[in-house]
Amino acid sequence: MKWIGKILVLASLASPLSAFALFGDCKELFPNQQIPTSPQVGRDLCFDSFAVYYSPTDKKPIYTIEKLNSERLSEPHPRRSNQFYEEARLPLGERSLLSDYRGSGYDRGHNAPAGDMNNERAMAQSFSLANMMPQSRQNNQGIWAKNVEEPTRQYAKRISGDLYVYTGSIGKMGSIGRGKVTIPKHLFKLVYDPSRNTAWAYWVDNTNDANMAPPITYQELEEKTGIDFHLPTDVLPLHGKKSNQAGSNQKPLIGGWYPIFFDDYTPQKVQEIIAGIREGKIISVQIQYDRNAQLANKLAEQIQNQTTLQPDLFHSSPSESSSVTYERNRVTIIIHRK
């Protein structure tokens, strides 16, 4: 019966483009199987661990969707393949090509990150050019990887239940290659936690010198992109908000949790943490480490000696495997902000 599936795929590619994606083979990736409504027409592509709504005119994703959870992200991480390839399911005239990126000065920026993939096949699929956007190099390897992708993974590991993550880009700053792949002006990542009815979005300029701004609300992202992601109308922002209704003396649904990474001892980062504690802005600190206990202890001692807060040291040691790669010497301080 495999030939029937191939015929259906070919028929779908031959059919007119639509702004109403179907995602027939992977609707379970979407919250309540609700497919977003986009003003842009495109192709829906299902992969094992993510899905792409792809723009044949811009030759990059309009958005991607992933369903993350602690179990998936705690599994042994396959080695990053770096094997980029052209998406064979797309008609040739709609594909971005390897040659389009060559010498462009832009990275092939993942929408669904390779770092989220938990098996070799999913890792390989994540390098499809249908999952890529032209991204400023320092942005891709710096602020986006460290201040957007990694905090999203850390949040997914902390909560119980599934986390839905949409990633995409919008706007145009020219194009690259003979195929004229659109260079987006802005990048976004929408994070939705249904267990807390909470959603927030990272909105980042696609430049090497982009600054990290506080997350925007789900409603603000809808206005900026024109995409209706069909999340609940009463979804709360990142820090929640107090209700004026009687009987709602609850704390905000989530606090301000975020990581600060130490690849070596950085006095400025430490002093910023200490200042936040002294000003009453930081409630707790957890120091996570694997091999670099010396750096972890040094950070803990300095915080303890200069504040009244007792840091929580947490030894997080992943399983040993020849196929697993970790930044084992990194120390991560998880900040719980008031």
Describe the structure.
The protein is of the alpha+beta class and 338 residues long. It has 2 domains: 20-225, Extracellular Endonuclease, Chain A; 256-337, 2-Layer Sandwich (Hypothetical Protein Tm841, Chain: A,domain 3), CATH 3.30.1180.10. Helices cover 25% and strands 25% of the residues. It has helices at residues 2-14, 70-74, 98-101, 120-125, 137-158, 218-225, 267-278, 293-306; strands spanning 43-46, 50-55, 60-68, 106-110, 132-136, 163-170, 175-176, 181-182, 186-193, 198-205, 256-262, 282-289, 312-315, 331-337. The protein has a 6-stranded antiparallel β-sheet, sandwiched between helices. The chain is globular, with a radius of gyration of 21 Å.
Features:
338 residues; alpha+beta; globular; six-stranded antiparallel beta sheet; Extracellular Endonuclease, Chain A
